[in-house]
Write a structure and sequence with these properties.
Ubiquitin-like (UB roll); Rossmann fold; three-stranded mixed beta sheet; POTRA_FtsQ_type; six-stranded mixed beta sheet; cell membrane; POTRA domain-containing protein; FtsQ_DivIB
């Protein structure tokens, strides 16, 4: 073979890969030439989904601070008006005391209640301290509970509950009236139509309160017959009836059961009935 003759070169794998890359590059360039607006369309579509244009967003953002400022100004004005109304009500006679209403009295007079309250007419209602007024009224012995309240626009409302006597104690010809709580709240010369409280041996304040609780809970048929009550201890209350019979009552518990038993047993007794255990009464 002659030396100047050129032999054809064999194509390897690397040459084929290079040809494939060139072919793909040519294809992509041809596609871009045919469809030059696809990327722009995609960008337009993305902008459409993202919302209004930046100018619209800026206009809306500018409106938000205006609304917030208006709300703040409205809140401040409302607070100022409330404070002004409170100052007017507190310092001016616009809402002042013009009348005092008293309810719940039967023995204590209205004038005594109003005088004890010491609330001056014309005082601004918000300046009236109701607690000291109630304490002064409660110092009246016959008053058990009291409530003093403001009634807008110009009224003081006083509600009281008076003590009720359930028995009396004779001390040197003077009747001292006691309520169910054992409070000696009034005195009078004439003995009332109530059971007379007598002191038993070893009696105490607790024994007295137990006796008063018993007579306060007696039914009408029995309370009309009781002339005196005594208690040597809280569990040893004794009643004396008009016919001189004695009823051993015991403590203040189960009063209704004891009264029911006594109604049936009392006609059979001559001098004494014991209903301290109402299921097992005894009499003689």
């Amino acid at each position: 073979m002659p030396d100047n003759q050129t032999m054809p070169r064999m194509r390897g794998r690397s040459d084929r890969d290079r040809d494939d890359r060139d072919l793909r590059r040519d294809h992509d360039a041809e596609f871009d030439d045919r469809y030059p607006d696809d990327d722009q369309d995609d960008r337009d579509l993305d902008q459409h989904h993202d919302g209004p244009d930046p100018a619209g967003r800026s206009r809306r953002a500018g409106r938000r601070p205006v609304r917030g400022t208006r709300m703040l100004i409205g809140t401040v004005l409302a607070v100022i008006l409330l404070i002004a109304a409170g100052l007017i009500a507190y310092f001016t006679p616009l809402m002042s005391v013009r009348s005092v209403e008293v309810s719940g009295t039967s023995v204590v007079s209205r004038d005594d209640i109003v005088a004890a309250a010491r609330i001056a007419t014309g005082t601004p209602l918000l300046q009236v301290d109701t607690r000291p007024a109630a304490q002064r009224i409660a110092a009246i012995p016959r008053i058990k509970t009291v409530r003093v309240a403001r009634g807008y626009p110009s009224t003081i409302e006083i509600t009281v509950v008076e003590r009720t006597a359930v028995a009396f104690e004779d001390r040197s010809g003077t009747a001292h009236l006691y309520d169910v709580d054992g409070v000696d709240f009034a005195q009078q010369a004439k003995a009332p139509a109530l059971p007379r409280l007598t002191s038993g041996a070893g009696s105490s304040d607790a024994a007295r309160r137990s006796a008063l609780e018993v007579v306060a809970g007696l039914p009408d048929f029995l309370s009309r017959q009781v002339v005196s009550v005594a208690a040597s201890s809280p569990s040893d209350v004794r009643l004396t009836l008009r016919d001189r019979k004695t009823v051993v009552w015991g403590d203040a518990d189960r009063g209704a059961d004891k009264a029911r038993t006594l109604r049936f047993v009392l006609p059979r007794a001559d001098s004494e009935v014991n209903v301290s255990a109402p299921e097992y009464p005894t009499f003689r």
